[in-house]
Design a protein that fits this description.
The chain is an alpha+beta fold and 283 residues long. 54% of the residues lie in helices and 8% in strands. The protein has a domain at 204-265. It contains six helices and four strands, in the order βββααβαααα. Strands 3-2-1-4 form a four-stranded antiparallel sheet. The longest helix has 40 residues, at 126-165.
Length: 283
């Protein structure tokens, strides 16, 4: 029925009719607050689809005009009154057709809809528009609250990074005129390699392996200090313990590579990681 019509439109070679069916609940809510929207589609060449659409628009307009006329016609009228009304309605009808034609010029050749054609949408009331606006405002409020929550989470992450590196990251969100907070770097996570600690080998390959071992040894020490910090929550402490265990494993793999290369070159293997980490277990 025409009163169930939501929209008529065509796109290229597609003609569609959207109607409300109270007996059917749509899976996806295509419009705000409406769940019974059903879409029927047909396909043909563009010129035929547009012609069908124009006829459908005209038929819908006829339905609206007829409905409006019925509301205005009184129950009992004389023939003279009817003749007078028909005479008076002649001029407005012509101007209305001219206006409709002018509006149709704005419709592109490849697409159009019921609303763009200038026809009245009998189902869209002011109350429905208000409901849609209210729902949009609710969604906007929820999005703003979620955005504020994410901003606070980003601030905490940036502060944590600043404690570890001593430098506030540029991603830290600042309001207009706000200065970034001063953060003291957490002691115990920084280390510096002394040139004397790096082994000196004649073999360049062995020299690279030994240097890599020394660097990862310092990384293991830093990971151990982070995992041993007091007042850590359970999840963070568990994560740092795992990072420390991974660092120790990586250090052992580097030592194994060194020993394999030393044996290949006719040299004795070493046990550096065992000697360097006597108490590697974190309570």
């Amino acid at each position: 029925q025409w009163k169930q019509l939501e929209n008529l439109y065509f796109r290229e070679k597609k003609f569609a009719v959207e109607v409300h069916d109270p007996r059917r609940i749509s899976v996806s809510r295509r419009t705000f607050g409406q769940s019974g929207l059903v879409v029927q589609t047909w396909y043909a060449n563009t010129s035929l689809i547009k012609s069908i659409w124009v006829m459908a628009i005209s038929q819908h307009q006829f339905y609206l005009d007829r409905k409006q006329s019925k509301a205005k016609i009184p129950s009992a009228r004389s023939l003279d009154d009817i003749a007078m009304d028909l005479t008076e309605m002649g001029t407005p009808k012509v101007s209305k057709l001219v206006t409709l034609e002018a509006k149709n010029q704005l419709i592109m050749a490849s697409n159009g809809s019921l609303i763009s054609s200038g026809s009245q949408d009998s189902e869209v009331s002011e109350e429905q528009k208000k409901e849609k606006i209210m729902e949009l405002k609710k969604k906007e409020k929820l999005l703003q609250e979620k955005l504020l929550q994410k901003v606070e989470e980003l601030k905490k992450i940036c502060l944590r990074e600043a404690e570890l590196t001593g430098k506030m990251p540029k991603e830290y969100p600042l309001s207009a005129g706000e200065e970034p907070p001063q953060v003291r770097r957490r002691v115990g996570t920084a280390f510096k390699l002394d040139d004397n600690l790096l082994p000196s080998e004649e073999d360049p390959t062995l020299q690279d392996l030994e240097s890599n071992f020394v660097i990862h040894q310092k990384l293991v020490e830093a990971a151990k200090k982070l995992a041993s910090e007091p007042d850590l929550c359970k999840n963070v402490k568990k994560k740092r313990k795992q990072e420390y265990a991974d660092a120790v494993k990586k250090l052992q793999e580097i030592e194994n590579s060194i020993n394999e290369y030393r044996i290949k070159c006719g040299k004795k293997p070493t046990q550096k990681s065992t000697l360097a980490l006597p108490g590697k277990r974190i309570p």
